[in-house]
Each structure stands twice: as C-alpha cells, then as structure tokens.
Write a structure and sequence with these properties.
Layout: H1 3-6, E1 7-11, E2 14-17, E3 23-25, E4 28-30, E5 35-37, H2 43-51
Antiparallel strand pairs: 1-2, 3-4, 4-5
C-alpha cells in the first residue's frame, strides 16, 4: 500500500489519514476529535476521492 492510499492533502497545511475521517460537511473535514478546513485548490480532488 502506498502513502497516497492512506493519506490525503486537504489544505497546504494539512495531510490527513483517510481512516480517521468521520464526515465532510460545509467545506470542513471532520476527524475523530477535530474539524479541519480544506483549501479551494483541493475541492475537486476531495470530490474525486469521496466518490470512490
């Protein structure tokens, strides 16, 4: 398994583990204990991997 299969960049400051995502709501990614915003330039990438 590759790094890109387990983690994704959602903002220039954040790379997150996919297994910790609980929800994606209102341009924020909700992890187990925190909500992080995602950057404008990552919107299409996030939409692509959430469809899979």
């Amino acid at each position: 398994m590759y790094f890109s299969d387990q983690f994704k960049r959602i903002h220039r400051s954040y790379i997150i583990p996919l297994q910790k995502i609980k929800a994606i709501v209102n341009r924020k990614v909700r992890l187990t204990h925190i909500e992080l915003p995602f950057g404008d330039s990552y919107i299409s990438a996030i939409q692509d991997w959430t469809k899979r």
